[in-house]
Design the sequence.
């Protein structure tokens, strides 16, 4: 979905300079949170992050469970900013005037804030340990012959 937003924004210069309103409708609040993060990422000035860094971080956020330390630090930093934006709409209009939260219900704002708190806590979900548990359950008695060299999590 977000790639369509990027494509529309990148082609905006071809058309009139009118304002474009993009409405995002998703069932899962985590998708909203990730799209907010990506919008803030692409709106970073080039002096703060280069285009290649933004592209790498975009790929990290959209495709990886285990992020690089730089990306994890960025996510934790921006989760604080986004949490403040959800709570204080005046700050949101000042910080990112291109995002409007007026149509969100208060319960959705609270759920977004919970998601941002989860991102700030960073170590709540242990991917490698969960992968190991899953492999133990799946392989059963054959797990002993299974080596950690074949785990897809180690290569990330």
Sequence:
């Amino acid at each position: 979905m977000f790639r369509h937003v990027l494509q529309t924004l990148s082609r905006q210069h071809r058309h009139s300079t009118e304002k474009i309103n993009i409405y995002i409708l998703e069932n899962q609040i985590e998708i909203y949170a990730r799209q907010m993060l990506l919008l803030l990422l692409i709106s970073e000035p080039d002096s703060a992050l280069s285009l290649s860094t933004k592209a790498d971080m975009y790929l990290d956020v959209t495709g990886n469970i285990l992020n690089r330390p730089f990306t994890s630090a960025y996510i934790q930093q921006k989760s604080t900013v986004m949490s403040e934006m959800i709570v204080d709409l005046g700050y949101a209009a000042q910080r990112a005037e291109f995002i409007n939260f007026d149509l969100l219900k208060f319960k959705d704002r609270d759920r977004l804030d919970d998601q941002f708190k989860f991102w700030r806590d960073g170590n709540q979900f242990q991917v490698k340990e969960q992968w190991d548990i899953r492999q133990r359950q799946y392989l059963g008695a054959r797990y002993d012959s299974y080596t950690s060299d074949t785990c897809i999590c180690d290569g990330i």
Observations:
- The chain has two domains: 27-125, 129-156.
- The chain has a mean pLDDT of 82.
- Residues 129-156 form one domain.
